[in-house]
Write a structure and sequence with these properties.
Elements: H1 7-16, H2 22-35, H3 40-48, H4 53-66, H5 73-88, H6 91-100, H7 108-124
Helix pairs in contact: 1-2, 3-4, 5-6, 5-7, 6-7
């Protein structure tokens, strides 16, 4: 499942993207990558506040990768896996979809897993 967002932590990580120390910026970027879609709102908010060039560059790079509108790489593979689980429709696939549906409520993966479960239930029942 997508980890639940820790808003204060995300704000701190976004702030660290503009730190003077390169390692601090890199660690923040790596942690934001682990947060995936959960970090998108915090980065959009930072971009709206006229950030430094460094923060803008890093935030835009992150959004190009993880913004739900952009579907390529890891996000696309993940959603295709959800589609495959739905098509399989087995009890094991439903179990995995239920687990994925327990993630961060704002994450696309969570929403897609729940939608897949609803469609499966409509087809075959609970």
């Amino acid at each position: 499942p997508t980890p639940r967002a820790d808003e204060p932590r995300l704000v701190g990580l976004v702030r660290d993207l503009d730190d003077d120390d390169f390692r601090t910026r890199q660690r923040a970027m790596e942690e934001l990558d682990r947060q995936r879609e959960s970090a998108v709102p915090a980065l959009r908010k930072a971009l709206a506040a006229s950030p430094s060039l460094e923060l803008r560059r890093r935030a835009e790079g992150f959004l190009a990768k993880w913004d739900p509108v952009v579907m390529q790489g890891e996000p696309l593979r993940t959603l295709r896996a959800v589609e495959t689980l739905e098509q399989a429709g087995t009890s094991e696939a439903r179990q995995v979809l239920r687990a994925l549906g327990e993630g961060d409520q704002g994450a696309r993966l969570t929403r897609e897993a729940k939608a897949s479960l609803r469609r499966l239930q409509a087809k075959t029942g609970p």
